[in-house]
Design a protein that fits this description.
Blueprint: E1 5-10, H1 17-26, E2 33-39, H2 45-62, E3 67-71, H3 74-78, E4 83-86, H4 92-105, H5 115-139, E5 144-147, H6 152-161, E6 168-170, H7 174-186, E7 193-200, E8 203-210, H8 217-225, H9 244-250, H10 259-262, H11 264-278, H12 281-296, H13 316-328, E9 333-340, E10 353-361, E11 364-367, H14 375-397, H15 400-409, H16 417-429
Parallel strand pairs: 1-2, 1-4, 2-3, 4-5, 5-6
Antiparallel strand pairs: 7-8, 7-10, 9-10, 10-11
The protein binds 6-O-phosphono-alpha-D-glucopyranose.
6-O-phosphono-alpha-D-glucopyranose binds near residues 174, 285 and 313.
Cofactor: NAD(+)
InterPro entries: GlycHydrolase_4_CS, Glyco_hydro_4, Glyco_hydro_4_C, Lactate_DH/Glyco_Ohase_4_C, NAD(P)-bd_dom_sf
Protein name: 6-phospho-beta-glucosidase
Length: about 450
């Protein structure tokens, strides 16, 4: 008889937790989660209690043998864990509001994972995740860390490079959504298609082939962008609108986040217009969260409410629970995750984190070889990887020169005095979450 699994979720008070719970309940027969520990910090206690009690009701309604524990004591939770998932947000949504507002006030894209905002999210998050990794080394050295915390690619990079912890998988719902939605657009069954993704988190390209090896990518580009663009595959980005000539020349499908790089003027204009009416995306998310938590408070609610689909992370449980399932049961499922390159993309060094299509085995992800990109993708890929490496280094060292170098390289940040001004404003706004920059 198996002892059953212990899963620990850090940032357990997140509004996404019911997604995870639903995923584990649906898979209970093959993935017997006996202990589900939700961990949060003092500032997140109220949310942890609300969503944690909702998780308990879900388990009860499902009639499965699983204990849900709520705690603020991370170390108690981590002891002997099998899998640790991270979905925390350092500084909560208020910090994201600053990440989005400050660059926007200087006429630059303000976004959760891109541009100056994305860099600062990494600076706040990396030290906390590295701390968790240190606890894991001591308390659950055999566990896998499944990270959903953004920026997921840079967090994976930091854990591999500075945490020296190999059992990390960075995951994101974008590839999961793309597979499902694009198969629908092609009028095909996902099981008859092979989607091959390669690149970085929120900056990957992909091709799609049928089960006879026929390349359907050009057809997909036409269906998706030929008219005037379809709705985006994620709720937090409005539509997928590209210049058809350019996108056809790519030879691969872009991801929704490429709009920030390929259509910067359009994205900035839309962001500014949206800001006038709704505030930033983070402010909107705060309102959606408030509604969600009001629903979660209802003692009669014991299932995931529809409204959760308004958040960009829909199908997250598909990714998180399925990866854990694939590792635990050695299912050899094909999924796209952030992992170490190891020669998969020959345009990048072996030791960096990349987001690529892999077979998920009992020993972790085994990437499908990709090879080299043509110049139109390669240039942006290498630039962004260099930018990520500098950002992660700055997060660990607290060195402003390194940070300014990352700012200068990022295509969404105006270089020079403007870069320095935005950097200084963000450093001041996030002072309490950046101990490495304010050591004395
Ligand atoms: C997408 C991304 C996630 C991101 C989310 C933001 O799904 O893949 O990495 O966290 O959107 O959604 P939100 O509702 O917070 O704006």
């Amino acid at each position: 008889m198996t002892k059953g699994l212990k899963i620990v979720t850090i940032g357990g008070g997140s509004s996404y937790t019911p997604e995870l719970m639903e995923g584990f309940i649906d898979r209970y027969q093959e993935l017997p989660v006996k202990e589900f520990w939700l961990v949060d910090i003092e500032a997140g206690k109220e949310k942890l209690d609300i969503v944690g009690n909702m998780a308990k009701r879900m388990v009860k309604a499902a009639g499965i043998d699983c204990e849900v524990h709520l705690t603020l004591d991370r170390r108690e939770a981590l002891k002997d864990a099998d899998f640790v998932t991270t979905q925390l947000r350092v500084g909560l949504l208020d910090a994201r509001i600053q990440d989005e507002r400050i660059p926007l006030s200087h006429g630059m894209i303000g976004q959760e994972t891109n541009g100056a905002g994305g860099i600062f999210k990494a600076l706040r998050t990396v030290p906390v995740i590295l701390d968790i990794v240190e606890d894991m080394k001591e308390l659950c050295p055999d566990a896998w860390l499944i990270n959903f915390t953004n920026p997921a690619g840079m967090v994976t990079e930091a854990v591999l490079r500075y945490g020296k912890w190999d059992k990390i998988i960075g995951l994101c719902n974008i590839p999961v959504n793309a597979v499902v939605e694009e198969a629908k657009l092609l009028g095909r069954d996902t099981r008859d298609l092979f989607f091959h993704f390669a690149g970085l988190n929120h900056l990957h390209w992909h091709t799609v082939k049928d089960n006879r090896g026929n390349d359907l990518t050009a057809e997909l580009v036409d269906v998706m962008y030929g008219q005037k663009g379809t709705d985006s595959i994620v709720a937090n980005i409005k539509d997928n609108e590209y210049l058809l000539e350019q996108i056809k020349h790519l030879g691969m499908m872009p991801c929704p986040y490429h709009q920030y790089y390929y259509m910067t003027d359009k994205m900035l204009k839309e962001e500014l217009a949206d800001f006038e009416v709704n505030g930033t995306r983070a402010e909107k998310v705060k309102r959606i969260e408030h509604e969600l938590f009001e629903l979660y408070k209802d003692p009669a609610l014991d299932y995931k409410p529809q409204q959760l689909a308004e958040r960009g992370g829909a199908r997250y449980s598909e990714a998180a629970c399925e990866i854990i399932n694939a590792i635990y049961n050695d299912k050899r499922r094909v999924m796209t995750v952030s992992t170490r390159n190891n020669g998969t993309i020959t345009d990048l060094p072996d030791d960096v984190a990349v987001e690529v299509t892999c077979m998920i085995t009992g020993a972790g992800p085994v990437p499908f070889q990709f090879g080299s990109f043509p110049p139109q993708e390669r240039g942006l890929l290498q630039l962004m990887k260099a930018m990520e490496l500098l950002t992660v280094e700055a997060a660990v060292t607290g060195d402003k020169g390194t940070l300014l170098q990352a700012f200068t390289m990022n295509p969404l940040i105006l270089s020079g005095y403007a870069a320095k001004e935005v950097m200084e404003e963000l450093l001041a706004a996030h002072k309490e979450y950046l101990p490495n920059f304010y050591r004395n």
